[in-house]
Amino acid sequence: MRLKHIKLAGFKSFVDPTKVPFEQQMTAVVGPNGCGKSNIIDAVRWVLGESSAKNLRGDAMTDVIFNGAASRKPVGQASVELVFEDVAGHLQDSLAGKVAERNEISIRRVVTRDATNTYFLNGAKCRRKDITDIFLGTGLGPRSYAIIEQGMISRLIESKPQELRIFIEEAAGISKYKERRRDTENR
Ligand code: ATP
Ligand code: MG
């Protein structure tokens, strides 16, 4: 499974619609301080369902919406879309037939100033849970190990056994079954 591209509009400093392609092998994002490199990573985490403003380096969840600049007015909503390809083998189970014909999936999240969040899977409205369920056990949740940020390695080394277990369970593919069990028990 590969992240093919990300589209941002009204998200943090990306006010105009911007498409960031990720080519085969490796992509590096370079640029001067404050140009928006980390905002791209925040966008990936956000669309995957991140619900903590602090983890997105803000105070409120609506802080991700472009807030204006010297020459631009603030906008009313933020939108981020991720497109993954080669998803069939990896997500067969969780997608249950929802894979698009071209073996791609698109997930999108939109937030408006009144803090209303809307999620889309292949263009159709869905719940946040539909998105988080898809990526459980793939290593690509909003807080999982696919995104390795500054300080994470030392945090991992110094983490308590219970915290370490969460990562190991995700890597072993157990976390999705635990989540389903929790769901069933709560019904
Ligand atoms: P560094 O090299 O210092 O890590 P960076 O390229 O990672 O920099 P980011 O942290 O991604 O930079 O971007 C910070 C910029 O994004 C700042 O200029 C900040 O004003 C802008 N920014 C963040 N949130 C918003 C928002 N809601 N509206 C407008 N601009 C925003
Ligand atoms: Mg940065």
UniProtKB/TrEMBL annotation:
It is found in: Cytoplasm. It comes from the Bacteria. ATP binds at residues 32-39. Contains large globular domains required for ATP hydrolysis at each terminus and a third globular domain forming a flexible hinge near the middle of the molecule. These domains are separated by coiled-coil structures. Homodimer. Belongs to the SMC family. Required for chromosome condensation and partitioning. This is Chromosome partition protein Smc. It comes from Thalassotalea agarivorans (Thalassomonas agarivorans). The chain holds residues 1 to 187 of 1163 of the full protein.
